[in-house]
Structure formats: structure tokens, C-alpha cells
Design a protein that fits this description.
- There is one protein chain.
- The protein is α+β, with helices and mostly antiparallel strands.
- It folds into three domains: 226 residues, PmbA/TldD fold; 108 residues, no CATH class; 79 residues, no CATH class.
- A hairpin with a 2-residue loop joins β2 and β3.
- Strands 3-2-1-4-5-6 form a six-stranded antiparallel β-sheet. A five-stranded mixed β-barrel has the order 7-12-13-14-17.
- The chain is globular.
- It contains nine helices and 17 strands.
């Protein structure tokens, strides 16, 4: 979609959304909300110098939710024709009439609706053709394969470009529109020596293709990471510090966010139930949410219910200030929405001091630097954490050799409190913004 076509699409979607609300109310609904979106994209995959797939996508969707008092019904369609939308509204109303009442269901409070539209510079269409994307992917992969003869195989390179325009509206009279683009280049390679094969990858993603890393640089970075993993050693089971690189460190912050999110809390299925005002991070560390961050992947002026977003603090100087709530979970807890229906927005880990990565390694002295995690080993009820891992062993403040087939284990609450240093290498490829994290001690289960 171009700049002009996106404006036309948004105007059309706005009309559809407003019409859906009118029709739902006319059918007797006491309240209604609707989301309408159009997504378009191009994705190209190449492998070993050959084209594997070229995919053009264009998807549309309408999702309708109606309320008859506290009874709720939802239905959706991928067809924006009038008769299809009419059928979808009928289905939503029929479902609502036969569901049980839930006193917590309903639209967000009318006085919480967003009133000020904001632009976050997220719309940067990339007029790349399939042929140009193929050529870019081939250059990316070839640069990696040419780096070293030990690069013996490839999982391929991918080039993707996507755009999305969407409108959310409800019967409070709120109508909010958004549009964004997201582009990426990635490469995954395999290397081989006498001890076997190893695989690693690298990628770059941005809302503006002009700020992507060069394709050749991505390929070479993937190759360097893969080569560094050759000839891994086994580790004996021990307790030692663990250093999480940025793209993995954000999973620890994500675990904390999940533990203080509404669904887990009102079900009392979180190790951080009733935790507002308690210490969840070391003194000096804070988590600040900034939904108005320019070009932030989580930026929005309204949440999934139309509630106004605003910059605020989740954790201040180590102390949890609030939960992460939409209207339904807030009502279940006797609280108010935090403007997080649909999830957290841009969340930045702030620290009084950020150290260069090499200094983090020196400070660790002896321990494990983790560069890959496998599995989903977090028990949200207890906080127990156990995941397969690979990375590098560090001695005397220097990386010594790669390691794999290990498991790292601990408890997330203890791990978060055990953060002793934060890196300055913030990974901006996510809405969770953190540098590397050094945890003082975890159990590392190895060969013996």
C-alpha cells in the first residue's frame, strides 16, 4: 500500500466500522465494538542460491463483538462485502443472546476513551518488487556463505515487507485508526567441522527499510555467529553466573510482564499475585512504558479497547507500581484498566549504569554467556524456570569456548532480583527494550 492508498483504505475501513456499530445497535445490542483491518505483504525465501518461495499476501478481516447487557457474543469474517458483514453481526447477536451473563464484561468505560490522535512515524512503505527482494536475499546469503569454507549449508535468507491499516470503533462513539509497516531481512547458516554441524542466524527489522542493516552485513553476521559455535564442549553441572544477550534478556522481562498481567492475576495463577508495592527488581532498576515512542514497535495512542495510552512506570526503583490490565481483568480484580488491553506497549528497562558488553563479561569472571534458549520452561504459577540453552563458557573474564546441550534453571523471581548488571547494547527489534542482563547465579545442568 502506498501513502495515498493507505489513507483511502483507512477512510473506507472507518465507514465500515461505523456502519457495523449502527447495525449492531439497531439489532438491539446495548453496546458493540468492531475491529477492521487490511494487511498486505511480500515475503521471499532463497536457499543455496536458489529461490524457494515468493509469497504475496493481502488479508482483510472484520471482528464484531456485541453486548446485550452483560452477555457477550463475537463473530468475525474475512469478507468485507455488505451481506457477509450483516451475517457476521447476526451471528454475534445470536451468540450473545445464549451466553451466560458476566458482570465484568462490556466496553471499557466511556470516560477512558482516547481523545488525542498521535502519529509515531510508523508508516514507511517499501516499494520493493519480488525480483528486487530475491536479489537482496541472494546477496545476503552469498555474503555469509563466502565468509568461510566451513559454511557448508544454509537454512536460507528471507526478505519480508508488510503493511497494515486498521480501525477500531465502539458504541461510545470512539473511532481510532492506525497504520504501520514492518520490513525485515534475515539469514540462517550452517557450518561444519570434524566435531559436527552448528547453526545460527541474524536478522534486522524496522518500520523503515532505509534503516535496515545491509544485506551483506546480515549474512556475514550470521556466518560469524555460526562459526563461533563450532566444536562445542560439554559442561559439568554447577552453579554459576549467567549472562543473557539482549535478544534473550527480553524474555526475562517478558516473563515479569506476564506474571503481572490481568488474566494470570484474577485466576490467581501467577507467582506475583497481590504484589503491588513489593520489590520485584533490584534497587535502581525501573521499567518505564512509553506507548508514544517514535517508531516503537508497541506504539499506539489507544489500546485494544479504545482506552487512551500514556507514558507511565510499571516498576520504580525495583518496586512494582501497578499491574498490566485491560477493562475485563481490571473489573475482575476490582481495579481500573491501565490501558493495556491487547498487551504492554514499549517497555524500557532503565538502570543507573549501563555497561559495555565486554565489561559485563569481565565482571562475570567465570560463568555462562547464553546465546540460544530452547523450549518454554517458565511455570507462571511458581516462577520456576528451566530451559535448554547454548552459548559460551567464560573464564577469567574472557570467552573461552562454545557449549551446548545444557539446561539453565532457577526461579524467575530470584533471577530478576539477582540481576547485577545491565548492558548498554539495547535491542530495538522488539517492544521490550533491554540490553544484556547479568544474573548472579543459576543452576547449569550439563553432562555430569
Amino acid at each position: 500500500m502506498t501513502q495515498d492508498s493507505s489513507s483511502q483504505e483507512l477512510a473506507s475501513l472507518r465507514q465500515v466500522a461505523e456502519d457495523v456499530i449502527r447495525r449492531a445497535v439497531a439489532r438491539g445490542a446495548s453496546a458493540a465494538e468492531v475491529g477492521v483491518n487490511i494487511d498486505a505483504g511480500l515475503n521471499v525465501n532463497v536457499r543455496m542460491g536458489e529461490v524457494e518461495t515468493v509469497e504475496h499476501t493481502r488479508d482483510r478481516g472484520v471482528s464484531v463483538t456485541v453486548y446485550f447487557g452483560h452477555r457477550k457474543g463475537s463473530a468475525s469474517t474475512a469478507d468485507l462485502r455488505t451481506d457477509s458483514i450483516e451475517t457476521t453481526i447476526e451471528q454475534a447477536c445470536a451468540i450473545a443472546r445464549y451466553t451466560e451473563e458476566d458482570p465484568c464484561s462490556g466496553l471499557a468505560d466511556a470516560d477512558r476513551m482516547a481523545r488525542v490522535e498521535r502519529d509515531f512515524d510508523m508508516w514507511h512503505p517499501w516499494g520493493i518488487t519480488a525480483e528486487e527482494a530475491i536479489e537482496l536475499g541472494l546477496r545476503c546469503e552469498q555474503a555469509g556463505r563466502d565468509l568461510d569454507p566451513r559454511i557448508s549449508n544454509s537454512d536460507g535468507a528471507s526478505v519480508g515487507s508488510g503493511s497494515s491499516v486498521s480501525v477500531y470503533a465502539n458504541s461510545h462513539g470512539f473511532v481510532g485508526a492506525s497504520r504501520d509497516t514492518r520490513h525485515s531481512v534475515s539469514c540462517a547458516l550452517l557450518a561444519e567441522d570434524d566435531t559436527g554441524m552448528q547453526r545460527d542466524y541474524w536478522y534486522s527489522t524496522s518500520s523503515d527499510a532505509r534503516t535496515l542493516e545491509a544485506a551483506e552485513a546480515i549474512g556475514r553476521r550470521a556466518a560469524e555467529r555460526t562459526l563461533a559455535r563450532l566444536s562445542p564442549r560439554k559442561l559439568a553441572t554447577s552453579n554459576a553466573p549467567v549472562l543473557f544477550v539482549p535478544e534473550l534478556a527480553r524474555s526475562l522481562i517478558g516473563g515479569l510482564v506476564n506474571a503481572v498481567s490481568g488474566g494470570a492475576l484474577y485466576r490467581r495463577a501467577s507467582f506475583l499475585v497481590d504484589s503491588i508495592g513489593t520489590v520485584v527488581l533490584p534497587p535502581g532498576l525501573s521499567l518505564r512504558e512509553d506507548p508514544w515512542l517514535q517508531r516503537g514497535f508497541g506504539s499506539s495512542w489507544f489500546d485494544a479497547e479504545g482506552v487512551a495510552t500514556e507514558p507511565n512506570t510499571l516498576v520504580a526503583d525495583g518496586v512494582l507500581q501497578r499491574y498490566v490490565l485491560g477493562s475485563y481483568s481490571a473489573r475482575k480484580l476490582g481495579l481500573t484498566s491501565t490501558g493495556n488491553a491487547g498487551g504492554i506497549h514499549n517497555l524500557l528497562l532503565e538502570a543507573p549504569e549501563r555497561l559495555p558488553f565486554d565489561q559485563l563479561v569481565r565482571q562475570m569472571g567465570r560463568g555462562l554467556m547464553v546465546t540460544e534458549l530452547m523450549g518454554q520452561g517458565l511455570n507462571l504459577v511458581t516462577g520456576d524456570y528451566s530451559r535448554g540453552a547454548a552459548g559460551f563458557w567464560v573464564e577469567h573474564g574472557e570467552i573461552q569456548y562454545p557449549v551446548d546441550e545444557i539446561t539453565i534453571a532457577g526461579n524467575l523471581r530470584r533471577m530478576l532480583m539477582g540481576i547485577v548488571a545491565v548492558g548498554d547494547d539495547i535491542d530495538h527489534r522488539s517492544h521490550l527494550l533491554t540490553g544484556s542482563l547479568l544474573v548472579d547465579q543459576m543452576t547449569i545442568a550439563g553432562a555430569g
